Amino acid sequence: LYDENPAAFSETGLGTTLSEVRSHLKEIRHKGWHHTIADVTPGVTGIAAPLFDSQNDVTGSLSLTFPGTTILADEISKVGKQLASANRYVRNHEIPVSCGSRQLTFLSRM
Known about the structure:
Elements lengths: L5 H6 L6 H14 L2 E4 L6 E9 L5 E10 L5 H19 L3 E5 L2 E5 L4
Antiparallel strand pairs: 1-2, 2-3, 4-5
């Protein structure tokens, strides 16, 4: 994806080189969530946690958006951690998820 549109990655603050983007995505994966403030939509704060399948590939995300850009850092962190926790729950239980005609099942790794 990076080679198709490197400017889009740069505009979102993920990095200006493929190496920087990979490093930033690795940090997000480790942290379990990421937030943006007015990066995607002016006047909106977004918080999201990547959703992984049983092969540990990202298949989507759980996200919330809030009006405004003055949310306190500790509030953002609390919501991010809660989203990451919800994603772990989805990942550790057999939960079918539908998206249009596509059916995904997240299987327990236990």
